[in-house]
Amino acid sequence: MHIMKKLFLLIFLPILGYGQTTHYYDWGYNTANQQINVQLGDTVEWTWVGSGSHNLVSTSGTANFDSGYGTVGKKFSLTFTTAGSTTYVCSPHSGNMYGAVNVSESSLSLNNYTKINHIKIYPNPTTSIVTIQGGKQYHIEVYTIQGKKLMERTGNAINMEHLSTATYIVKATDKSNNEELTYKVVKN
Ligand SMILES: [Cu+2]
Fold first, then answer.
1. Exposed site from 23, 68, 76, 105, fewest CB < 10 Å?
2. Is the peptide bond between 92 and the residue preceding it cis, with omega within 30 degrees of 0?
3. What's the whole-model pTM score?
4. How far is the CA of 146 from the centre of ligand 1 (A)?
């Protein structure tokens, strides 16, 4: 079963286009409140730095891990295949060595969402429907700021009426054109 699952991930994750980025972090006395945001399928690798002997153990959430103890130069890496957050600590130094890995299930790159588009979306803020200027047919997706996909449809407008008051990411793609527009939309 375990081998089948690994095989499945190896074969299908690339096809489905999940992120496969490796994120590198230090792990030592001065690593309080690490917040590591990754995409499903990404790997996080920690490297032990500084003095002391430390472990890295999950305390709650979707993943379960225990690196065992090590000293400077030790590495521990993990690929995250379930969406959600997992908190972790170094057992003897949980006051100043702790953090969370937040795994989002979408392929939305949160680094890109502030990029300025010359095509407008309106109205923004909105109370219901937002329209992308130009009348083209897009694949429109709405995400939370954390990258969780909430809705999608094809067209040049989408109705956000039932969503609660917050800021959302609206992504519009036109594959025929390699066009990808990303907006921050405020829902009132
Ligand atoms: Cu420690």
1. 68
2. no
3. 0.52
4. 29
